[in-house]
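Hello,

Our lab assistant flagged a job as stuck in the queue for most of the afternoon. It eventually completed. Since we weren't sure the result was trustworthy after the delay, we are filing this so someone can double-check. Below is the sequence as submitted and the structure that was eventually returned. Let us know if re-running is recommended.
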Amino acid sequence: MPVPATPQPNVARVSETVRSVLLSKIESGSLALPSMPGVALKVIRTLEDRDGALAAVVPIVETCPITTAEVIRQANAAANGRRVASVEQAVTRLGQLRLMRIAVEISVREFALSKKSAISGDFRAIWDHSVATAIAARDLAKLANYAEPELAYLGGLLHDIGKIVCGDILLYVEATTDRLPANWADWWLEVVGSVHRPVGIAVAKAWELPPEVVAGVEDIADYDPAEPASAPNLVRLANALAKKAGLYAGPVDATELDALILVGTQLLGVDAAAVDALAGELPARVAAATGE
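-- returned structure --
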């Protein structure tokens, strides 16, 4: 006698259920949000006071070998041949925003890439999209003469942090049940895409990230014409460029992307040819940055 097929869940219904549960838990403060590793959080909190904070960061960085190595590596890369001899020299050379970006990048990269799952490819694509958006946002900041390109980079890196957190929640479901839908990978990605935004906002606020970064997490779709050359607007255009470059997990609307890029390019007053070139370079630059 044939075994009845296991009923497959309705993706839209499950997405709405997950969204409702997460929003309720966020509102009540009962959602267990991931904690940023201690070193990164201490660096961010110390650097929030941008006056004279660098000296206080040195002993924090020195408590973590990974952070120390990356800070020195990036300081040397920016030194034009003049190598630093200490963490103090490296910290001074990099400055507040670059140090903040390095600390957060290390933490989020380890969180995003530590997954052991059949859907690890989707996590990889989400991370690559975040890196591409960060790279593009920083380059656009320079084209638009925005004063803090590292802040734009940080906003790009974290604009989809909610996807990583929601994905982690669903991976718990994957690990604790043997009744997964047949099209689990597509199902997982659709649910994550539908519920990640409020979770990302909650994470950004819990991590006490700069307001400009939180704004980019809150609304990635619509430009703010009141402040054209702002970090959130740079991230919004960068997000569209990363998608156009094929660095995205999920479907995209090409017509909508072209419109977003056109509007963003005009709003920021940047050269369209330079923007096109930037999009074309992104796949190679992301591969180089992530070691792929």
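-- support follow-up --
The delay was a queue issue, not a problem with the job. The result is valid. Residues 120-143 form the longest helix (24 residues). Confidence is low (pLDDT under 50) at residues 1-6.
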